[in-house]
Amino acid sequence: MSGMRFVLTCVPGVDSQWFFTLWNDLFAVTKADEITSDVSIQVSSTSHVPGAIPVPASARLIAETPTRSLWSGNDKFWMQGNGIKCAASKSNIDIAISKEFWANTLFKQRDFLLVTMVSMLRLNDVYGFHGNGLVRDNTGIIITGNSGAGKTTLTHALLSDGWQYLSDDAIALEIDGPVVRTRALRRGFALTEQALQRGGINPIWDKNSVRELGNGKYLSGPSVATERQFIGQCVPAAIFFTSVGTADATVITQIKPVEALFLALEQAAGLFVDAKSASSQLNLLKTLVEQCACYRIVAGRDVIASKETIARVSEMILSAAKKNKSVSSVDNGALK
Amino acid sequence: MTTQSTKCNMKPKPGVVHTEMEAGTAVLLDMETHRYFSLNESGAFIWNKLSTGTPVADVASLVAERYSLDHAKAQRDVDNLISELSKAGLLLKDA
What we know:
The complex is a heterodimer of chains A (336) and B (95).
Chain A: E1 6-10, H1 16-27, E2 30-31, E3 39-44, E4 60-65, E5 68-73, E6 76-81, E7 84-88, E8 92-97, H2 99-102, H3 106-123, E9 126-129, E10 131-136, E11 139-144, H4 151-160, E12 164-167, E13 171-176, E14 179-184, E15 189-192, H5 193-197, E16 211-214, E17 217-220, H6 224-228, E18 233-234, E19 236-244, E20 251-254, H7 257-265, H8 275-291, E21 293-299, H9 302-305, H10 307-322
Parallel strand pairs in A: 1-2, 1-3, 3-8, 11-19, 19-21
Antiparallel strand pairs in A: 4-5, 5-6, 6-7, 7-8, 9-13, 10-11, 10-12, 13-14, 14-18, 15-17, 16-17, 20-21
Helix pairs in contact in A: 7-8
Chain B: E1 9-12, E2 16-20, E3 26-30, E4 35-39, H1 41-51, H2 56-67, H3 71-87, E5 91-94
Antiparallel strand pairs in B: 1-5, 2-3, 3-4
Helix pairs in contact in B: 1-2, 2-3
């Protein structure tokens, strides 16, 4: 993914600006009139979806939900959802959309595109991971955990204390020589109603751009201030597995790499797609937990209480991450 | 005593993916059941020998040599692990 450039082309009839905005919110793509690309994304006409992008009979169905099906085969993935069909190969993504697609919630629209993008990345040995990336003082961290475990709340707290930001809820992991590097996969914030109400403490998103995502969440791009905090990649020095506690104070406990690997496997995207890529993904996650200092973090009320308590949590996390002196997270000034 | 497992070779079930950790331990991933398993250092050693085709009868000798155990104790340990891994569906008899 190093230097990977995505170029989006929409045929006439597709709301290209809207699609560009949606895709750019996820992946920071380039418009089609710019230079060459590593991955071209082509959005085709809305008029012939039923026969568009056929899935060959030889493809293997690897995931199915009421609204989405995913197939794998011959170095290619196919995804079909409500009003959208996609085919992802190593360097190309074809998308056919219908009017039905736009009736989905923004949450689902993003989800369809994210599945397609993560499938394409997988073919490039880059693996999606459910977590957030942050950097401070040349020290990169990953915050991960199950949905509702407090990842975004903790991330907002750290951003409000001056940390730099890679991505909310989805990051990409790739082997880069002897280390694992993490890259941004999603720039917008998915906010809960409560997070919106706490905007006074954490003014990190653009209040003017808040849109309803569905599923009780709202989407916003980074605020002007947060945009300046954006960083495209880092080599993480620590990984924190979050859960929400009821105590006042946040507690951090170091764990062994093997425990961390088990926890990380729970957050690995598409782990069971096929044995070959699973083996690469497993080895990548092993390298990640061995390069990182690994912690469980039980977030207390101090994460949202006040700027002073947030600053203490921030310092505690930075101090824990810095115990791992073997990793320099930001190198060569190549941040974006 | 010669156990059932020493009479045949064992091999990992297809679709079991593994990685070795720095400390010599290992993590196994069963692609079929979507379950994960960890092996301690000696378990990882035995898994490694079985998955590279070492006959079961020879694995106990290698374990005895590596961990300075008497052969009978090493054989029991190997048999117990093979039994557990087989029950978990991670090992198959190699015809």
